[in-house]
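FAQ: What does a multi-protein file look like?

Like this. Sequence, then tokens, then the next protein.
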Amino acid sequence: MDNESLPEEVKELYANFGLAIYHAQVLEYGLVNALVFLDHIPNKRRLATSPEQWAASVDSFMEKKFEFTLGRVIRELEAVTEVDPGLQDLLSKALKRRNWLAHGYFKDRAEDFLTVGGRAKMLTELEESQELLISADAALEQAIKPARERIGLTDEVLAATYAKLRVEIGADG
């Protein structure tokens, strides 16, 4: 069956699954960035002897963290800073949801996928998953904002950098 012959609710289901996994990856990047702000910069910045060496150090640090499971990255965050219990709870729920989506979602919902009502239920679950992952990332961002700002990455600096990047790559929209 080609994509054009798929029912619209199936296409919407796949698109929302993709969005949920996307938001899980955004959270993962946010956690690794948090480790850069809270661990790598405070502990390693003074060791760099040039901007190039520092850039290589940050890149290497991040590459290593991306090899870890999401659960391990969360544990590393908890090891380098005190994590608010509300954020801990959100990250725990986000981790469980991400793992279920990545490793068992379609298997667990195989029967639901066969009916219109089941697919509607799945769509609701995927929208809820997106909301959970977005909420966890937003709470993480708020928690690390002071550390980010201490190194000069204010909201204004980030917005200007993003705008400059969009111009450099010729982004549309």
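And here is the next protein:
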Amino acid sequence: RAKSQIEELLQKKNSFGSRVWISDNQLKMLKLTAEKGSIKTADALQVSGLSRKGSYNVLEKLVQLGLLERAGVKKGAYYKITEKGQEYVG
């Protein structure tokens, strides 16, 4: 099982050829965003089972990696998948 997980992680690369390592929760949120087009922190809460702050941190990490982009402000903020994120999921 560990070997298959390592192989799967090694196959996931960003468009620049360097490795992008994301957690299972990050992958779930990325896939959800790809399916829905955009998500809010509340959507991420339902999928991940994390706290509000934990979900926010996961989404912000995906923004830092360039896989998601944040739009809106404060309670109206939502996240959209980027082209790089689409390539990662697809």
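Q: Is there any per-entry metadata?
A: Some entries carry free-text notes. For the entry above: Strands lie at 38-39, 68-71, 78-81.
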